[in-house]
Automatic annotation (TrEMBL):
Originating species: Actinomycetospora flava
Transmembrane segments: 26-48, 54-74, 110-132
Pfam families the record matches: RDD
Domain RDD: 17-148
Coiled coil location: none
Region span, Disordered: 246-338
Native organism taxonomy: Bacteria, Bacillati, Actinomycetota, Actinomycetes, Pseudonocardiales
Name of the molecule in the record: RDD family protein
PANTHER family assigned: SLR0254 PROTEIN
Places the protein is found: Membrane
Length: 338
């Protein structure tokens, strides 16, 4: 991965193409150019067999330059950085700031490729282009350095997060009563990424990170889970319920057709009226402490966090000494005249 700073001073992560993919792309384009050159020369040979030798050599040289320079120039200009070989390999030529190339970029690349990288100076072996591309940080050849371009990959392998396993049915039923409005998106994404990659982590790091994420989520979700709930099972239940609610909000069917509770999930009862919210007793944490949800008088620690500190008792008032002056009378008492 490489970072590209666009014109709006924003950094973008792009995957630059390296030597193997670029070599395959150039090989495909070279085969097309050689076939095109052969067909053009064959057509000229068949059309005028009595042409002078010097004129035929000059025409052959002009056609060779036109094919090897005009082919990449036209393709990269018209398609904004894609030739048939690059299209087959999922590559594209862009500017170093991430923008599309224009005619002058394609012209500089085509001329440098024919003269320096793969043509005359390298004796049509491509050794200069290979050495320069392998030596630069972004895999640029001489034509890229002169034109100010890079080659990036457009078609990347799917690295998205796979689906999470289903949550425990008992915890899923508990999660339906949870308040998830205060759960931020970045924390939910961090929890999802942890669950997906939990099998790749070492056991101590997995337990520590899972406990910390569960504590952060539990501090924003009410009510707390049942006692003894593992952190990963808790995160699975919360994220599954959050996804179900988002699907229902966007108009999807989180339960499927005919599933029980589908109408209740949408907030409508069988007679078309909205159900009344259930009244329940204040929930408690697995450690028997009241949950600090909305409207609670005092906050309580997360069920996955460290135990609460014992409050320090207030110091007792010092006794009044005999030589101290008399205390001030109460506001409603009687004070004798001086």
């Amino acid at each position: 991965m490489d970072r590209v700073v666009i014109g709006e001073a924003v950094e973008l992560d792009v995957r630059t193409a390296r030597l193997p993919s670029r070599a395959l792309s150039f090989a495909l384009d070279a085969l097309i150019m050689v076939a095109l050159l052969f067909l053009v020369l064959l057509a000229i040979e068949l059309a005028g067999s009595d042409v002078d030798t010097a004129l035929a050599a000059a025409a052959g040289l002009a056609i060779t330059v036109g094919v090897f320079v005009g082919y990449p120039l036209l393709w990269e200009t018209l398609t904004r950085g894609r030739s048939p070989g690059k299209y087959a390999m999922g590559l594209r030529v862009v500017r170093t700031d991430g923008g599309p190339i224009v005619f002058r970029h394609a012209l500089a690349r085509a001329l440098a490729g024919f003269i320096v990288d793969f043509g005359l100076l390298s004796f049509f072996t491509g050794v200069i282009g290979i050495v320069v591309s392998a030596s630069t940080a972004r895999g640029q050849r001489v034509g890229d350095l002169l034109a100010g371009t890079i080659v990036v990959r457009e078609r990347l392998p799917r690295t998205g997060l796979p689906g999470l396993p289903p949550a425990d049915p008992a915890l899923a039923a508990w999660a339906q009563r949870c308040e998830l409005a205060d759960l931020p998106d970045d924390l939910a994404l961090a929890a999802r990424q942890f669950l997906v990659r939990a099998g790749q982590l070492a056991a101590p790091m997995r337990a520590q990170l899972g406990t910390r994420l569960a504590a952060d989520v539990a501090a924003r979700v009410a009510p707390p889970p049942p006692p003894g709930t593992p952190p990963e099972a808790y995160l699975l239940a919360v994220l599954g319920e959050r996804r179900r609610r988002e699907t229902a909000r966007l108009g999807g069917s989180p339960w499927g057709s005919g599933a029980p509770g589908a109408s209740g999930a949408a907030g409508i009862t069988g007679n078309g009226a909205a159900p009344a919210p259930p009244v329940a007793a204040p929930p408690t944490s697995p450690f028997g402490q009241p949950w600090s949800g909305p409207g609670s008088p005092a906050p309580s620690p997360s069920p996955f966090g460290p135990p609460p500190a014992t409050p320090t008792p207030a110091p007792a008032p010092e006794p009044t000494r005999r030589d101290d002056p008399d205390p001030a009378p109460s506001p409603g008492g009687f004070a004798p005249p001086g």
